[in-house]
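Please, structure for the following, as C-alpha cells.
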Amino acid sequence: MLEISILALAGLTAGLLNAVAGGGTFISFPALIYVGVPPVSASATATLAALPGYVTSAWGFRQDMQAEGALSLNAIVFIGVIGSIIGALLLIVTPGDTFLWVVPWLLLLATILFALGPFILRHLRQRGAGKVGAVGSAFAIVTVSIYGGYFNGGLGIMLLATFGFIGYVNLHGMNGLKSVLSAVVSLVSALAFISAGLIEWEQALIMAVSSAIGGYLGARLTRRIVQTDLLRYFVTSIGATMALAFFLR
C-alpha cells in the first residue's frame, strides 16, 4: 500500500506539473527508482505513465492551439514522431549502467533549462523569434524530440523554448502544443519500449491513472495561477535535489 500511495501521488503531482510548468518526470522517475524499478525500465515506464496526463492537458488547452511560425501543426507532429523513434531506439540499446551514469547529467541539464526557461524564451524572442525558416524549425523540433524519446525529464520546458525559437508567442497555445507533442513523443517511445519489454505494467497503470487526473486539473488551474515563479522554484529545487542524489548514488 505504501508503494501504491507513493506511485499514485507521484503520478498526480507529475501530471499537474507537466500541465502547468513541466518537470513532472523529476517526480515520477525517482519514485519508480525508489520502489525498485531498474533505471532504464523506470525511464520507459515514466514515459508511458506521463502519456494520459499529456492527453488530458492537451484537451484542456484545445481551444488555444493554432499554428504559428513556418511549420504547420501536422508537420510539427510528424517531425516529433521521427525524433521520438530515434530517441527511443537509443534508450533501448543503452546498457543500464551507462544510463545510470547519464541520468544525473540529463537531470542537471533539464533542471538548468527549466530554471532558465523564462529567460531563454525572452532571449529567443529578442534575437528574432518568428524569423526561423522551415528547415531550422524542423531541426529544432527533431532535436528536442530525440531527447524526449530518450529521456522525458525536462521535455516540457525544452519544447516551450523551442516553440519560442520558431516563432510562437501565445503562451496558452504553446502549453497546449507542448502537451500534444509530448503525448506524441511519449506514445511513439512507449510503443518501442513495450516491444522491447521495458515497461513495468503494474507501476505504469497506477501512475497513468493519477497522471491523467493531474494533467486535466493542471490545465484547468493554469490560468488561475499567479505566482508561477514560486512553482518554478519548487520544481527546480526538486530537479536539483534529484540530480545531486543520482550523482552521489
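The radius of gyration is 17 Å. The chain has a mean pLDDT of 83.
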